[in-house]
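Deliverable D4.2, example record:
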Amino acid sequence: MVHQYQQKIGLKNLCQWVQLPLSSFHYKPLAGKPGAKPSLYTKMLDGKVVVNDEVIGSIKKLLSEEFVCYGYKKVSASLKQLKYLINDKKVYRLMDENNLLLGKVIRTTGKRQFVKHRKITATCPMDYLCLDIKYLWVHGEQRWYYLLSVIDVFSRKIIAWILQRSIKQIDVINIFRRINQQHPIKGVNIRNDNGSQFLANSVKRYLSSEEAKQEFTHIATPQENSYIEAYHSILQSEVVERFELSSYYEAKIIMTNYVEFYNTKRIHGSLNMKTPQSVWDTWNSQNNTSTKGERMSLQTALSPLLENTIKNLIINQKCQTFNII
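Output generated by the structure prediction step:
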């Protein structure tokens, strides 16, 4: 209305008639977010100024350490120990922009490799690993805890497990890091369900970088992950239904003792009444090697030597043929 009659009546009078302040009439919103633009640099305690990419690199390095599962406040405190002059709000913004915050939605891209055969035929230890998460009720604390177990299909040995209030993608990566230190996972087949922790891009990238082969069971098909499901069923009947857990610490002690018993003393029907540890040790002693990953690493190391040997044999053969002619 003001624009319609602006040429005939003064702008000041028009604004007074419609009760519109002149400042509101002349206001033009700026593009982008309001307020000052965020700084692209961060100061150090010694006066040095670094780009935010360097700060982000320090955050990623901190969060990549084993067992580190920090929110933005602990990350901020750690950065201050590294002589960064930075506040919690800026740390939160940088972590939010780079998807480094805890509790963020786990995003996944790319196609999943689904299992092709329900039954697994494992030929040696560390040929096939299965993992899954089970809920464990602690009566004394009136809350659930999460148990992540990893089983070797060939020997039925539990090679790793963790019991925590929650299982995040970094926990899955860390458990495989620990396994990889003792038994290389290169070339190992890893089967899991479609839990968000296993679907996470960071987990898939880590396993891919270690050349492990991850495969997913089909939706609502626990039969395809029967080996770890069977172990959790045994655990339910032999531990959960027999013990009333009073605290997390008691639950962890009982789980530690039970896994030791399961691996070394409990005979297994599918193993011809042998224990998982005895099957594992027997195979290793008979084959003079520990795991599939170690054998593949050995083959990789020997390949250049074999190639050079073959080349030398060919050259020698040609030389001999030439001398004969």
